[in-house]
Design brief:
Layout: E1 8-13, H1 34-47, E2 50-56, H2 65-68, E3 92-96, H3 118-124, E4 129-135, H4 137-150, E5 156-165, H5 173-184, E6 187-189
Parallel strand pairs: 1-2, 1-4, 2-3, 4-5, 5-6
Helix pairs in contact: 4-5
Length: 195
């Protein structure tokens, strides 16, 4: 059980139209997790925790990224918008993947409107604990959680296993990603363990 307070940041990763069913890179359970994500963030607001949302915000031309993935989350397009069911009011938004030469997987590569990187923003607010949820488990969620762990003792890193969705391009990708994160020191929890 974890108790949310002002030492926590909730980082909601890439719950965008293109990553939900029907989108350019739609993830099967992308929409199903939104209710749980909203519940966690509503509780976070009540407890005074910091709330962050990241988004892929790609230019039309991505030199390497769009060779690997179908074109998705292009700046200003409907696919790049947050899913309409996701409640983002009061969130600090971090955009990533804006440089044509970078992939922008990790939330720690994102910048807010003030051009701050995520790490700088979290430190400015005295954050000690990060809770990750969102899309996709084995890509951007994992990249963010692993980067948080790489900061060493600065953050304790949590992942909500029932508020994430995986691509699972290859069978077992999600399971392997969860094991990698847990082995690195990420604490896996379910939303019912958050209060």
């Amino acid at each position: 059980m974890i108790e949310l307070d002002r030492s926590f940041a909730i980082v909601t990763v890439d719950v965008q139209n293109d990553f939900c069913p029907g989108g350019a890179l739609g993830v099967a359970n992308g929409r199903k997790i939104i209710t749980k994500i909203n519940e966690v963030n509503a509780l976070a607001e009540e407890k005074g925790a910091l709330r962050v949302a990241t988004r892929d915000w790609h230019p039309q031309i991505m030199e390497e990224h769009f060779k690997i993935w179908p074109v998705h989350c292009v700046q200003g397009t409907p696919g790049a918008e947050f899913h309409p069911e996701l409640m983002t009011e009061g969130f600090e938004i971090f955009s990533k993947g804006m440089d044509p030469k970078e992939h922008g997987y990790s939330p720690f590569e994102g910048r807010n409107e003030q051009r701050q990187i995520l790490n700088e923003y979290l430190q400015q607010h005295g954050i000690e604990n990060i809770l990750f949820l969102g899309i996709a488990t084995e890509h951007c969620v994992k990249a963010g959680a692993m980067d948080a762990v790489a900061e060493g003792r600065r953050y304790q890193t949590f992942l909500t296993t029932d508020a994430i969705a995986a691509v699972n391009a290859t069978a077992g990708d999600e399971k392997r990603a969860l094991k990698d994160m847990q082995d690195a020191g990420v604490i896996l929890i379910e939303t019912r363990e958050i209060r």
